[in-house]
């Protein structure tokens, strides 16, 4: 099994390079994906160094003292992680409509209801 789509039990969201998202930096709206290239800490869930949130290249720092991997500005400073951003509408719609998610939809009617609500309130991304 690759790292295309997985589940982050820490932040309760889908992760992997198959998942489009917005950079978790509060001042940034860069569109990225939740692949290893963008994760703070360089590992799913952040490993030992990071918070496991996802950032664009401008908001990940390599070579921070005491950190072996890329980390976000909060982890570099030893602070609390940023607030994770909600899923992008593109991803929500994918989960609601893609045939590969049919089984998941059948098994998680509550989650589907939440997503349908989120789809109505989430702004469409520019991509
Ligand atoms: Zn971090
Ligand atoms: Zn960013």
What does this structure look like?
This protein is an alpha+beta fold and about 130 residues long. It folds into 2 domains: about 5-75, no CATH class; about 90-120, no CATH class. The chain has helices at about 75, 90-95, 100-105, 110-120; strands at about 5-10, 15-20, 30-35. A 3-stranded antiparallel beta sheet has the order 1-2-3, with no helix packed on it. A hairpin with a 4-residue loop joins β1 (about 5-10) and β2 (about 15-20). α2 packs antiparallel against α4 (about 110-120). The longest helix is centred in the C-terminal third of the chain and has 13 residues, at about 110-120. The structure holds zinc ion (2 copies).
Q: Tell me, what's the shape? A: elongated
Q: Which strand order do you get reading across the main beta sheet?
A: 1-2-3
Task: Give me the number of helical elements.
Answer: 4
Oligomeric description of these chains:
single chain
Low-confidence stretches: none
Main sheet overview? 3 strands, antiparallel
Fraction of residues in H or I helices: 25-40%
What do the pLDDT scores average to? Answer: 92
Radius of gyration: 15 Å
| Euclidean distance between termini CA atoms | 28 Å
Structural class: alpha+beta
Could you say which small molecules are bound to this protein? zinc ion
Domains, number: 2
